[in-house]
Structure formats: C-alpha cells, structure tokens
TrEMBL record:
MF terms in GO: acyltransferase activity, transferring groups other than amino-acyl groups; hydroxymethylglutaryl-CoA synthase activity
CDD domains reported in the protein's UniProt record: init_cond_enzymes
Domain Hydroxymethylglutaryl-coenzyme A synthase C-terminal: 274-373
Pfam families reported for this sequence: HMG_CoA_synt_C, HMG_CoA_synt_N
InterPro entries associated with the record: HMG_CoA_synt_C_dom (IPR013746), HMG_CoA_synth_N (IPR013528), Thiolase-like (IPR016039)
Hydroxymethylglutaryl-coenzyme A synthase N-terminal domain boundaries: 80-178
GO BP, one annotated term: acetyl-CoA metabolic process
Domain of life: Bacteria
Keywords: Plasmid, Transferase
Source species: Streptomyces xanthii
Family according to the record: Belongs to the thiolase-like superfamily. HMG-CoA synthase family.
Protein name, entry field: Hydroxymethylglutaryl-CoA synthase family protein
Length: 421
C-alpha cells in the first residue's frame, strides 16, 4: 500500500499553489460549431469553455501573474529563501535567454537564486518539481524554497481541429519547500516511462505538428507502464485501493476518462458501471477547472490538483492519498504518490481561482477570430511590435480587486517591454 504519510528527515512538497488563466474565454461549443466539427464528438471533450490568449499576454506575463500572489504573501525572509526558480514551457521567447530571467526580475526575487527554463512538453513542470524536491530534501540550506512555474501560450487555430476547443491558456505556480501546506510528496513512490515518439512537435514558434491518434496511444501506454514501474517501487500497491483520488495530466476530460477505464481494466477489473462510479468519485473533482480553462500543458496536472482541492469536501480531502500521472509528448511520463495536507483547502482557497475565472470576458467567435492572427504570432521574433494597452485595460478592469497584472507593452529592437496595469 502507498504510505499515507511521508517519512525521512525532510518532508518536501507544495507549500502554495496558484492558477492564472487569463482574462478572456470562449465557449467550446461556439468553437466546435463555427469550425464545423462533428457534433457527436463534442460530449467526449468534457469541455464547456476555454481561456483565450490576448495580444498583450505571453508566457512571461502568464508566469508572473501566476506566481506574484504567492510571492507577495511571503515574509521578506521566506521570499529571500527562494533560491531555485524554474519555468517550464513549450513557449520560449529566446533561444538562449530563459523565461525565468524575465520572471525573476518582475517578481523581485533575490539575486541569490538559481534560475533556468526546462522543456519537455506537458511533463516539464513535474520533472522540475521532482528534481527540486531532491535538491531541497538534501538539506544543504535549511529552509530553502523553490518556485516552479508551468507557463504556456498555444498557437492553435482551425488546423488543430478537435484540439482547438480544448486548448487552454495560462500558468500554474508552485512554491516548494519543507513546510508543505498543500501536498507532501512521498519519497521513492514513483514510476517512470519515457521514450522517443513524434506525437507532437513545435518546429516553429507559431506552428505545431500534432498526431492525435499517436498521442492518445502514447499517453495510454505511458500510463500503464509508469504505473507498473510505480508498483514495482512500492510493493503492495493496488490501483483501486491505494489511492483516495487520482489526478492526471488532462488534455481534455474524455481522455482522462479513457485512461482511467484502461488502467482499471488492467489493474482492478470490474463491471463497467463500477468503473464509471469509481471515475466519478476519485477523478471527476480534479477535472472541473479543466472544463472551464482547457489544457494548460505542463500546468495541466497542477490545475487538476487545484481543482481537486477546491471541489472535494474537506472530509474526503485532507490526509487523502493521491496517485498522480504526468505525461509530456515526445515523450516522458511519471506516476507518483503524494498526500494532501491538512489545511490545503484553506491555502488554495485564498487564491480565489473560481472567482477569477468568473471575471473573464466572454468572447464571441468573431472577436476570437479577429485576435487569433495576432496572438498566433506572439512567440515569433519581431524587431518592433505595438500593442493597444487601452484595449487591454477594458479586459483587465474586472480583475483590479485582485491586484495588478503584468502585460506585454510592446517590442523595440527585439526587446520585450512589460508593464503592470
């Protein structure tokens, strides 16, 4: 059985978590209908609406806006204890300079800090978290913290077909340390499975190659094989009994449903009705935010964690054992164990994710189409770019009570300029 609590000299995990999902959204049904997609396939998406990138948002603004509430809530001493900052993204802005360098500056973090950018599709943030946990668990500097930020923008349009209505926009920030108030990682409780496959790639900043059938097969293969590796590392594991909740990388809810069904059939065979009931009980609470935001790439699994904490009852949540599955195309995957800490609901609730989602402006398809050519080019290097910040203010106004947001103000001689609005 997976242990309910961690052991060893240092309990390491997530101390704080915040989701930023932009300031605009569009109905998934509106996209589906406007693109002429097969209506019989809509229900499998399990997506109601999705966040939309605007012309003044990029992977830097998303990262900073996700992390700033966490950093601002820290004491000066704790802020100075952040000595590792890692941004995870498929949406880099430079071939040498990391997103983390911009993020570090705008967050006002100490110069006594290592920072870097990692990339492995939707697995990147999980890999960075596990490496950071190992570093912190070594205890070289007691009280040290790491800040891991998964941040992306996605240049999807009609060529992406069924992926377009499920593509999200935003970032998730994780503060990692030895006082985990949200989630404690279970040392040694993991299973890995990685191999080279061309299910997706981004050969240019504004172009994705995507093989949906191959990606689905790779995802399912990685889930089965990484879980088997986990069970080898944690003898006595029972998929149906060892975990109170299951949290997975969520490209869209229907894919998670299929993945859960496959693993149940392999590891805990039972009647289809009982498998469906297990899905509703152990998985569905983690999918609620994805229904409203879409796929956040390497932030997806951490969005699912936030959804579970916000939507599950405190009675069933605190102290619960989690089985977590992270997958990144290309591909890398990990199944790992963790425990929800007492007080997690209060900590995550302070970020008011549901309230902020409700403040996003609802775009018509015509508005979305008008902005799409601009936002698709946001990652493409340009010597100069002008941005209408008066238009930005109209979208940002409903969020004023939650603090200022960082926006891309323009580009001069290839140098990006940002402002707080």
């Amino acid at each position: 059985m997976t242990p309910a609590t961690t052991a060893g000299p240092a309990r390491i995990g997530i101390e704080a978590l915040n989701v930023y999902a932009g300031v605009a959204k569009i109905s998934a049904r509106a996209l589906f209908d406007a693109r002429g997609l097969d209506p019989d396939r809509f229900g499998n998406l399990m997506t109601d609406e999705r966040s939309v990138q605007l012309p003044w948002e990029d992977s830097v603004t998303n990262a900073v806006n996700a992390a700033k509430p966490i950093v601002d809530a820290l004491s000066e001493e704790d802020r100075g204890s952040i000595e590792l900052l890692v941004t995870s993204s498929e949406s880099g802005l430079d071939h040498s300079k990391s997103l983390a360098s911009w993020v570090h500056g705008h967050l006002g973090l100490s110069r006594q800090c290592r920072y870097m950018e990692v990339k492995q599709a939707c697995y990147g943030a999980t890999g960075a978290l596990q490496l950071a946990a190992g570093y912190l668990r070594a205890g070289l500097r007691p009280g040290a913290k790491a800040l891991i930020i998964a941040t992306d923008v996605n240049p999807m349009d009609e060529y992406a077909k069924y992926a377009e209505p499920t593509t999200g926009h935003g970032a998730v920030a994780l503060l990692v340390g030895d006082s985990p108030g949200v989630l404690a990682l279970t040392p040694g409780a993991y299973g890995l499975n990685s191999f080279d496959v061309m299910d997706t790639a981004r050969p240019a900043p504004d172009y994705d190659l995507y093989n949906p059938d191959l990606s689905l097969l790779a995802y399912l293969e990685c889930l089965s094989d990484s879980f088997r590796a986990y069970a080898d590392n944690v003898p006595g594991t029972d998929f149906a009994e060892s975990f109170d909740h299951v949290v997975m990388h969520t490209p869209f809810g229907g894919m998670v449903r299929a993945a859960h069904r496959k693993l149940m059939r392999e590891q805990a065979p039972r009647a289809p009705k009982l498998i469906a009931e297990d899905f509703e009980r152990r998985v569905v609470p983690s999918l609620r935010y994805a229904r409203s935001i879409g796929n956040l790439c390497s932030g997806s699994i951490w969005l699912a964690l936030a959804s579970l904490v916000d939507h599950e009852s405190a009675e069933r949540l605190e102290g619960s054992r989690l089985g977590m599955f992270s997958y990144g195309s290309g591909c890398a995957s990990e199944f790992f164990g963790a425990t929800v800490m007492p007080g997690a609901k209060e900590i995550v609730g302070k970020t008011a994710t549901a309230e902020r989602l409700g403040l996003r402006r609802d775009l018509s398809f015509a508005e979305y189409e008008e902005m799409l050519p601009v936002t698709r080019r946001i990652l493409v290097p340009r010597p100069h770019r002008e941005i209408d910040l008066d238009a930005a203010d109209a979208y940002l106004a409903p969020f004023r009570d939650h603090g200022k947001l960082l926006v891309l103000a323009g580009v001069e001689d290839y140098i990006r300029r940002y402002e707080w609005r």
